Amino acid sequence: MGEKFNISNLNLYYGDFHALKDVDLSINEKEITAFIGPSGCGKSTTLRMIAGLENVTAGNLWMRDQVVNDVPCGERGVSMVFQNYALFPHMSVKNNIIYGLKAHKMDENEIDARLKEVLKMLELEGLEDRKPKELSGGQRQRVALARAVVKRADYFLLDEPLSNLDAQLRMRARKELVKIHEMYHPTLVYVTHDQIEAMTVGDRIALMYRGKMEMLDTPSHVYNRPASVFCAKFIGSPSMNIVEAEYHNGALVIGKQKVELPGIWQRIAAQCPSGLLYAGVRPEHVMMSRTPQERSIEGVVRYVEDYGNRYGVYIQVEGDKNELIAIREGEIPQPGEKVYIHVETEKLHLFDRGTEKSLGYPEMVIRAQEKLAVPKLEKAIAQ
Q1: What contacts 24+ positions apart, CB below 8 Å, involve 11-17?
Q2: Three-state SS across the chain?
Q3: What's the whole-model pTM score?
């Protein structure tokens, strides 16, 4: 898959407000990239700049090996689906779908062929003559998708198109999006506030925060190898446990308790000069017992949430600041009970408390060692 779209050092100002800050992004041909982040982070603004609906203050947008900063929206070869559908209320379903094709004076036979194909794909047959006000929310959403799909553009841009639907309709619509991508393979950029949508639809996740690109990676890496405290806490429900810790003499110190670290994790922790860290662990990776275990720390159960098929056990460790949640099935401890919690080290996350950036993971250390070893080996062989 070759690189097809690139954002380079993109900035946007609204007066004195710096909305987008040095955003860099490469999207591969035929890839689905899902943008996610809190409200006001810049995800929809970035999408609108790609579409040509916002002006670029600084930086460059590249499409098809050319800068398109000043290319009008209608000449960029993009299809876009908006959150509010943006259908023409006075037009029928059929005319809403083919409006863009007729505006570009496409051959009537080609228009009819494309219309029939998209009506069948999105199960809109029989609704061609209805007006938008006569449709349900799910039907309107499918008409908006059909209008974008029928163009067969190289770039398919979606700005929270499913947010107005209920849970079951959203699930069905996600499947339709995947089906559309499998048929036409557009380069698809998808903005959503729903992390389940982002993780299930996206080949890669673009996680934005305060106008910056916080992380760009596969769903697996975003979840299992977050680049920062923000990434760790934003993705996942319940979110990752983050506790204050210090690193001293090969051990993590949490309050008055110590957890000895394996050698490779000592090297990672030692990269933080101040020794002031955040230690992170996903709730589903927190293990509990009623007796001390290797590398365990003591805590007290404060309360338990019943999720139906599992429980969330809230545990206080060393004061009010450090509270953990553990996901548990079956037997659960009761509020006030003392427990010992421990974590498999491969499920651990360490962050610099000053920068809130990840200090890395064992596989990164191993790769770095291997890169250093190759030149040394080559030199030894040469001698």
Answers
A1: 11/56, 11/57, 11/58, 11/59, 12/42, 12/45, 12/49, 12/54, 12/55, 12/56, 12/57, 13/57
A2: CCEEEEEEEEEEEECCEEEEEEEEEEEECCCEEEEECCCCCCHHHHHHHHHCCCCCCEEEEEECCEECCCCCHHHCCEEEECCCCCCCCCCCHHHHHHHHHHHCCCCHHHHHHHHHHHHHHCCCCCCCCCCHHHCCHHHHHHHHHHHHHCCCCCEEEEECCCCCCCHHHHHHHHHHHHHHHHHHCCEEEEECCCHHHHHHHCCEEEEEECCEEEEEECHHHHHHCCCEHHHHHHCCCCCCEEEEEEEECCEEEECCEEEECCHHHHHHHCCCCCCEEEEEECHHHCEEECCCCCCCEEEEEEEEEECCCCEEEEEECCCCCCEEEEEECCCCCCCCCEEEEECCHHHCEEEECCCCEECCCHHHHHHHHHHHHHHHHHHHHHC
A3: 0.85
Rg of the chain, C-alpha, whole Å: 26
pLDDT at 324: 92
Task: Quick: pLDDT tens for 59-115.
Answer: 999 988 889 999 998 888 888 888 777 889 999 999 999 998 888 888 999 999 999
Q: Give the C-alpha separation, 196 to 198, whole Å.
A: 5
How buried is 360 (Cβ within 10 angstroms: 0-12 exposed, 13-18 middle, 19+ buried)?
A: middle
Q: How far apart are CA 72 and CA 352, in angstroms?
A: 44
Average pLDDT of the chain? 88
Q: For residues 85 and 324, what is the distance between their CA atoms, to the nearest angstrom?
A: 42
Quote the pLDDT of residue 370: 60
